[in-house]
Amino acid sequence: MAIDTPPKGFIGESIKRKEDDRFIRGKGNYLDDISLPGMLHMSILRSPFAHARIRSINTKPAEAVPGVVAVVTGALLEQHKLAWMPTLSGDTQAVLATDKVRYQGQEVACVIATDPYVARDAAQLIDVDYEVLKAVVDPYQALKPGAPLIRDEKKDQKDNHIYHWEAGDKAATEAAFKKADKVVSLETFYPRCHPSPLETCGIVADINPATGQATLYMTSQAPHAHRTLFAIVAGLPEEKIRIISPDLGGGFGNKVPIYPGYVVATAASLLLGHPVKWIEDRSENLISTGFARDFHMQGELAVNKDGKFLALRVKMLSDNGAFYADAQPSKFRAGLFHIVTGSYDLPAAHVETDGAYTNKAPGGVAYRCSFRVTEASYLIERLVESAAVELKMDPAEIRLKNFIRPEQFPYKSATGFEYDSGDYPRALKLALEKIGYEQLRKEQAEKRKRGELMGIGVASFTEVVGAGHGTEYDIAGLRMFDSAELRVHPTGKAILKLGVKSQGQGHETTFAQIVAEELGIPASDVEVQEGDTDNTPYGLGTYASRSTPVGGAATAMVSRKLRDKAKKIAAHLLEASEADIEFDHGKFFVKGAPSKSKTIQDVAFAAYTNLPEGMEAGLEGVTYYDPPNMTFPFGTYVVVVDIDRGTGQVKVRRMVAVDDCGVRINPMIVEGQIHGGLTEGFGIAFMELITFDEEGNCIGSNFTDYLLPTSWETPRFETFETVTPSPHHPIGAKGVGESATVGSPAAYVNAVIDAVGHLGITNIDMPVSSDKVWTALQEKGAAE
Ligand code: CDP
After folding, report:
1. 739-756 and 667-686 helices, crossing angle to 10°
2. Which residues are catalytic?
3. Is 507 helix (H, G, I), strand (E, B) or coil?
């Protein structure tokens, strides 16, 4: 039954982002915009050394500076049992160093002052006497006997090894490798990079000394989980803690961990009875907060002569820095890296992972990916490219030969995931068609005859997003469900409150669209609120593209709950039996008599004014949704590059991206997410790198050393879609926030390898610089 004038903002409509009105007018409310009466400012003194014993700390010169209110050291925190805190991966992390510093940039002391610049200047006057120790920055070196012991404060820690973890079937994999015609190997490194949100991390901690009420304005992607962890770690009563995560200027996983600055500012507010603000500068953010990647990977693919994959064997060493603080479900020691079988029907696989401590900042966050899936996707796609080069097969053909076929879904992977749905050949074929693959291959063959270097890189990815279900997935023991609370007011306008927290992804628009679709209330009439623990239902927050699969599902479910009640009220208003009432986009009508109808707005008013006998007033509800499974978005990216033999410069000529995230709620927002991800993937493939010298000095502590792509170098993207709904998601949506970052780096690098593979160059690690390409060409006598 069609309705006359459909309200705007149903699922599938590219309506403009509601939140942009305030953002583009400069009316957003970010952490640094918050200013409270009597507020003090905190600055952190950080270690200049990567590994050093602290002999003494003299705070007197800083204390003497006019305007300084207090200087906090680890020794002071120790008195309050706050010198160490638990990490999200069950390790411990120093809040302020007491015994040693273990990475450059580690927090050593804090100055609280009436002015932020006074706090900063005074912090530089703190005199720390360090005994410099040998640092270790390479995880392989860190695991060698005799390497400096980083975590000597841990009683049972005798070396720098953190964990060993395996997935898959070792025996079946070994057997398959024995039978294979060929083994293709690849050793590669996914370098350390950084989420680099536009807004750095910070807090305004406001503890009222009279009431004990703690209001913490925090750059938090997971305010509810952070509240609980604060209650446990700091011993504050949870009902007295209110975390408000205001507008966030990006997060990308960087705002998931709890950082020492949050803890010290809170402790300082408690001790001083004043609000305390701390906000990082850019270098602090880059050197000390949650990094991403830093995985050393070895993959082997057992293949037959005809290109059929038989098994995958992977060994991975993760460089976790000085504290094992990865943000990931506690059951999985290397996150969901074991999805490394990717989009392929691999009968057997075995994955071994180890983690090592090094003198680097901790983190290991889900930077625009589900817990380490980016690294996995990169490895398998690079390995498949190697197989294509070695077998002299077309990279598209080898993929089509080995894809999980559409009829195999739901598909159980050799490492234990149950993929919900997919049509990988369709996405690949669409990408090939859109780029004009056959023609490009002809062009490439002609150019090769002339000695010109042109490459066509293919990468097909499968993501895994939407954690939980809660039985398998947790953060620090908290089950990964999520929630939505919906209140429809008498005039038919609604407020939707969520446990997730946008950092710029457009939740205020897309979640309102889900309500519009399910209840018919226009999206413009649905106010979406997130990020205030006192005013939103408990949830695990936004990272790993979980908002739509979990929070979005909760929104659909709570809307349906309200629709059921609304139907009863409509039956009462229409004097019909509930069984005879039908609903279509905001209109209830009697079956067979469409002119007898009531709008959702009529029904909302009646929910407060004219109810059926015995029915509770109001139209509101809450749903806590624990998904039955993850969702598995996928896609294929194809990149064309031209390489200059004289300079090694790689020019990305074209980039075609086909993404399938199931049903798209707001196609324009999805496109925006994909463009962002493709840009990030480009940056990682060609520019972004945080590295360290032998002494552990961080090279990449500012944006002149750590290069992010600007619009100048970023290529143009051509984006397309296929739609394979998730069968278990109420609206068939899968997450998309990170797919492009997961899927694209391999496509860029594969394009480079496709251009130079015939010269015997089969691997160049990221970031692929002109230098690296030119050196590789020169070694093969192919540089000009
Ligand atoms: O968790 P996060 O918000 O980072 O990721 P997401 O759930 O993948 O969503 C990113 C943005 O894209 C949100 O505004 C979603 O509602 C939107 N989206 C969509 O419109 N349709 C989809 N199928 C998936 C996401």
Report:
1. 40
2. 221, 368-369, 738
3. helix
